[in-house]
Amino acid sequence: MLKISVLVSGGGTNLQALINAQASGVLSSGRIVQVISSKDNAYALERARLANIPADVVSFKDCSDSDAFEAKILEKLNKAKPDVIVLAGFMHILSKSFLDKCSANIINVHPSLIPAFCGKGFYGLKVHDAVLKSGVKVTGATVHLVNEIPDGGEILAQKAVEILPNDTPETLQLRVMSEAEWVILPKAVEELCRKIDPKIFPKPVKYPGRGIITGMTESGRIMLAYFIMGRSKSSKARVFETSGDELIIKLVNPDKDLDSSLILYSPIRISGKNVIVTNGDQTDTIYEALESGGSFESALRTREYEPDSPHYTPRISAIINESGYKQSILKRAGKFFFEYEFTKGRGHLIHTYNHDVTPDKVLPSFTGEPREIKICDDMNSFADSLWDELGEDYRVALYVRFYSPDFASYSDKIFNTKSL
After folding, report:
1. Can you list the domains of the chain with their CATH numbers?
2. Alpha-carbon span 125 to 172, nearest angstrom
3. Number of neighbouring beta carbons within 10 Å of residue 59
4. Looking only at Cα atoms, what is the longest distance across the chain?
5. Contact between residue 181 and residue 14 where contact means Cβ atoms under 8 Å apart
6. SS3 state of residue 306
7. 315, 282 Cβ separation under 8 angstroms
8. Reduced to 3 states, what is the DSSP secondary structure of residue 244?
9. Which residue has the higher pLDDT, 15 or 254?
10. What interhelical angle do 182-196 and 13-24 show, nearest 10?
11. Residue 103 has what pLDDT?
12. Which residues contact 340 (CB under 8 A, 6 or more apart)?
């Protein structure tokens, strides 16, 4: 997990937004390890104390000049060694010399829609006063990377806020913060952390169960991945094996008395130009429907979650072809379908269980929409990272396939904890 330092000067409302996002899981790929304030009476320091985050003061007024001020901040930062620095209401422009000496990625949140009302002299209420005097109807906030040009770095996120007839600089400032800054800043920090360290799972994996990833690499290769985990002896004694272009599961030590209906199936089948991936025998249901002129959705509407009380494991499925991919989850709460066009470097992950739970307890189902993840071009690197993230305790098998951009050929890789 990446380390985040936050630089502040005042009340710390954006710092609080980051702290809240960290607690709720919105910010999960990085953790705030340090707060530095340029004022010794900033309320942001109290927010840091309440959140048990180490905090330091580098008072600008106590430094002989800007160079001395920046040198002391760098000294504090070098002790924490952050990967990301967030300027959250930090009322000082950092020099090119500072930026050259600092190896961390630095981002800032600005209370306008850059390139409007930004640059040197535009800060705090001055921005909102200028916005209102200009007569524009919409303002907002921007999160951007920091470079030597004030508010001139690459834009990472923006959100618009409507200006109301009776707005004052104070009311507009509050609404821009609550409707824009506090929303986009945590998400932008999370996205930057994922870009720097592209983990498949945003938190340490406990037990996601079975999972499907479909998407496209940065160079346009179509990909899919499927993994299984296990708790029981029989679940752990399984391996993946290819059968032509399809994938099957076998038992290491076949037991004729074992009910294998929920643990042995074909995870991948091919119907024409469609590749089907599922976590159960609904692979066959989808295949048969497609072969007879049906659809992915119509096939799955005839099925439901697995009958393994008390978990009632969801059935997760995906279909992928040259035009895009679909994913589905069938669980006690309903039947859900998701459709995506290909986007280079992006894919979606869906898995059976909430992976934060302890595996020896009843396992709650995956919630929400499939999670967007980054897909790199190097299949071996991607596969190795995913296998490592699944951990040694419960991982059973993993299959990864990368197609050529024209979908005519592919490379693949199998990981099996055990062997036949």
Report:
1. 2-196 (3.40.50.170), 211-416 (3.60.20.20)
2. 9
3. 13
4. 82
5. yes
6. coil
7. yes
8. coil
9. 15
10. 60
11. 87
12. 214, 215, 324, 325, 326, 327, 348
Tell me the two tokens of residue 119.
Answer: 């640059």
Q: Cβ distance 139 to 160 under 8 Å?
A: yes
C-alpha span between 45 and 42 (Å, rounded): 6
Residues 6+ apart with CB under 8 A from 267: 226, 228, 240, 247, 248, 249, 277, 278, 279, 283, 399
Say yes or no to pLDDT of 204 above 80. no
Helical ranges in 81-137 per DSSP H: 96-101, 125-134
Task: List the 371-374 sheet strands across, edge first.
Answer: 371-374, 346-351, 211-216, 222-229, 395-403, 410-416
- Give every strand in the sheet of 155-162, ordered side by side: 55-57, 30-37, 2-8, 84-87, 105-110, 138-145, 155-162
Q: CA 371 to CA 200: how far, in whole Å?
A: 9
The strand pair at 410-416 and 268-271 is best described as: unpaired
Element (DSSP H or E) covering residue 294: none
**Judging by beta carbons within 10 Å of its beta carbon (0-12, 13-18, 19+), is residue 179 exposed, middle or buried?**
middle
Among 86, 70, 74, 77, which Cα is nearest to 30's?
86
Cα 13–Cα 4–Cα 58 angle in degrees, nearest 5: 70
Q: Are strands 155-162 and 138-145 parallel, antiparallel or unpaired?
A: antiparallel
247 and 240 Cβ atoms separated by less than 8 Å: yes
Nearest to 83, CA basis, from 104, 98, 54: 104
pLDDT at 357 over 80: no
DSSP SS3 for 337: strand
Give the total residue count for the chain.
420
Place of tokens 């850059």: 114
- pLDDT of 97 strictly over 90: yes
Cβ(346)–Cβ(198) below 8 Å: no
**Euclidean distance between CA atoms 299 and 304, whole angstroms:** 11
CA distance 271 to 25: 39
pLDDT interval class at 233 (50, 70, 90): confident
What does the buried/exposed string (b/e) look like for 227-255 if buried means 16 or more CB atoms within 10 Å of the residue's CB? bbbbeeebebbbbbeeeeebbbbebeeee
Find out whether 70 and 94 touch, Cβ atoms under 8 Å.
yes
CA distances from 82 to 79, 185, 193 (A): 9, 17, 11
- Which pair of structure tokens corresponds to residue 97? 């010399």
Catalytic pick among 92, 110, 351, 355: 110
Give the separation between CA 56 and CA 40, rounded to whole angstroms: 9
* Token pair belonging to 197: 């360290």
Query: Does residue 110 carry a catalytic annotation?
Result: yes
Report the b/e string of 335-344 with b at 16+ CB within 10 A.
Answer: bbeeebebee
34, 48 Cβ separation under 8 angstroms: no
